[in-house]
Predict the structure.
Amino acid sequence: MPYPVFRPRRLRESALLRKMVRETRLDVGDLIYPLFAVHGRGIREPIPSMPGQCRLSVDELVKEAKDAAGMRIPAVLLFGLPNAKDPRGSEAYAEDGIVQQAVRAVKDTIPDLLVITDVCLCQYTSHGHCGVVEDGRVKNDPTLDLLARTAVSHVEAGADMVAPSDMMDGRVAAIRESLDDGGFHETPIMAYSAKYASSFYGPFRDAAESAPQFGDRRSYQMDPGNAIEALREVGLDVDEGADIVMVKPALPYLDVIARVKGEFGLPVAAYSVSGEYAMIKAAGRLGWLDEERAMMESLIAIRRAGADLVITYFAKDVARLLESGATP
Ligand code: PBG
């Protein structure tokens, strides 16, 4: 139906009409808010490359989580910074590790908030890699047991869901088996399935002090040029028992999100990572972009590509904006 019969502008005339025919919505219920836990008390240490985000001691983290829950954000994703690092990342799976403490405190205070934990070793290892290092190489199979122990310790502390982000082969199966052995059949796994070796994790690595001390993560995280391989990675995680699959980063990999959503019948999460947040914050501060609009446009794009859930440091800003009735 060509012009002049069809005039697409008819439906763009008013804000109400635009809202009625909008295909994709961003809802506060789709958001997951990442938080960084540190040892100590009363600590709210700003992260310079992630304006607005802080490293939080458990007491402060609970306040932040309460705040988020009050804004109807359904879930937080917890990361921890340990007191001491060692080659095998032992605080990652310590009963009284920082994440385990944070999980207990949040679940004690706000039982209805979903607590998801990031399962990885890189914040906890002295070499900063996501697995066990032998002869200068990151070893896959010896790492699986440590990841599984980490996941079980999080769930024992009360975590509602675990999210392995290490990219070792076979880790979803290893974690599923250990959770089941521990009687945690009902605890879902959100797998970082297509996680790329990305420059966009830079600010996170400052925040979590998790930069590798030698080499890089390219022997386990995915090559940015590959999309078909992402489908294979997702397929493997699905076969191993992943309940939710994730694409990470989000904005530079919208095509991958769309393909994963099209190919698999599972909920898809996308992680809008620290670098995506930092870019928008930085350009906003310089007056080069309208920060709020750029934030909403990016997040709606991630949903439009096919993500059901969006992990974002902007979660509270979005919740505030949506609450005020604003539309992207
Ligand atoms: C741990 C992990 C990383 C991120 C989430 N989990 C860093 C990395 O793989 O180097 C990045 C999150 C972000 O950049 O916001 N493996």
Observations:
- The domain at 25-323 is CATH 3.20.20.70 (TIM Barrel).
- DSSP finds eleven helices and twelve strands in the chain.
